[in-house]
Structure formats: structure tokens, C-alpha cells
Specification:
Chains A, B: It comes from Spirosoma utsteinense. Chains A, B: Residues 9-80 form the ABM domain. Chains A, B: Keywords: Monooxygenase, Oxidoreductase. Two copies of one chain form a homodimer. Chain A is an alpha+beta fold. Chain A has one domain: Alpha-Beta Plaits. In chain A, 34% of the residues lie in helices and 41% in strands. Chain A has a four-stranded antiparallel beta sheet with strand order 2-3-1-4. In chain A, strand 2 and strand 3 form a beta hairpin. In chain A, helix 1 (26-38) packs antiparallel against helix 3 (73-86). Chain A starts with 9 loop residues before the first strand and ends with a strand. Chains A and B meet through strand 1, strand 2, strand 3 and strand 4 of A and strand 1, strand 2, strand 3 and strand 4 of B.
Chain lengths: 106, 106
């Protein structure tokens, strides 16, 4: 299911990553972070897929909402564990969505 | 491999999609579009993964570079065939990358 977002402008966080081979705890924590994000102020939606590279794009109403989510205590612990165990490398890109359009097959 | 992009600001196109079950021609065209994008003016990189949802993020030096790529003749034909055969739905989001940071395990 594609994320249903409002009219731009809004914000996107593009999180791309390469995993290590450590699987312990990863799936549960990833699921929990998605669940937790849904309850954050200003959360608009999320899309995620992983093959050689993992890509998670989350959508937010404001930069303040993104800052608030980054500083969430449980999220910070997950970020730290991610650097220690689960990720070989990652990149976070904070973006302003200026325009969007779509297609739906009838 | 994560895309190696310059210091912000630069631009990102987030293309998210749900596929139909039509596979004919899809893989070859997808590969060709990535190849073709690499030769476009202002192209900076691309990351892609597909599970339930497909996510392709391409990075560009300017909005003009994005417009130019959207209008490429071979790309336009692929877009049209995509709507007719390969995609149930898709969304394109044009974004300005304002900030980025990363992590690399040593």
C-alpha cells in the first residue's frame, strides 16, 4: 500500500541502509519503530522495501515533527543498536516534498 | 551500494509503485531506465528496492535536470507502457534534500 499523503509541501526522511548479517532483534525492532512512528505527532505515512539496499521513506508534516521523532527515547536506543549491530552503513536524507503526482489503474 | 551524493542542497525523486502481475518487458525496461538515467545531465545516483511496494529514489542536481529526464523520449515511452501494463498504481514525489548525514561501520 502506497502512503496516502496530503498536498505538498510536506517532508520526507529517506533512510537507506546496508545490513550486517546480524539478524537478532532486528525484525522486532523494525516493526516496533514503524508502530511507534504511527503514534508520533505530524506522522503522515511510511513506505519500506529491502533487497540489496533497504529503503524506508517516512513522511512528516514539519521539520519539528522529524526532530521530535529522531529524539524519541526508544527510537534513540534503536538507532544506537542499529549502529552497533544491524547496519554496515546508512544514510539519512531530510527532504521537503515540493510536488507530487500519481497514477491509479481503474 | 548506497548512492554517493554531494553536499545538500540537491534534489530527490521518490518513485513508489505497486506492480501488476504483468512481467513481460518489465525487467529489461527497468534496467534500461537506470542505465539511461546514468547518462543524463545532473544525474547524481539512484537506489532501488522492491517487496510489497517498490521504491526507487533518484538524485539530481536541479529541478531542470529532473524535468529533462522526465521528458526523455525513451523514458516517456517507458512511462506510458508502465501505466498500460506494469503498474497498478504509483506516486512520484519531487523533493529538495535539505540535509543529510550517514554512518559507516569501520
Amino acid at each position: 500500500m502506497l502512503a496516502q499523503t496530503p498536498e505538498p509541501p510536506y517532508y520526507a526522511v529517506i533512510f537507506t541502509s546496508i545490513r550486517t548479517d546480524v539478524t537478532e532483534g532486528y525484525g522486532d525492532t523494525a516493526d516496533r519503530m514503524v508502530e511507534l512512528a504511527h503514534g508520533q505527532p505530524g506522522f503522515l505515512g511510511v513506505e519500506s522495501a529491502r533487497q540489496a539496499v533497504g529503503i524506508t521513506v517516512s513522511y512528516w508534516a514539519s521539520l519539528e515533527a522529524i526532530r521530535h521523532w529522531k529524539q524519541d527515547a526508544e527510537h534513540r536506543l534503536a538507532q544506537q543498536t542499529g549502529r552497533e549491530k544491524w547496519y554496515e552503513s546508512y544514510k539519512v536524507r531530510i527532504c521537503k516534498v515540493e510536488r507530487d503526482y500519481g497514477f491509479n489503474h481503474l
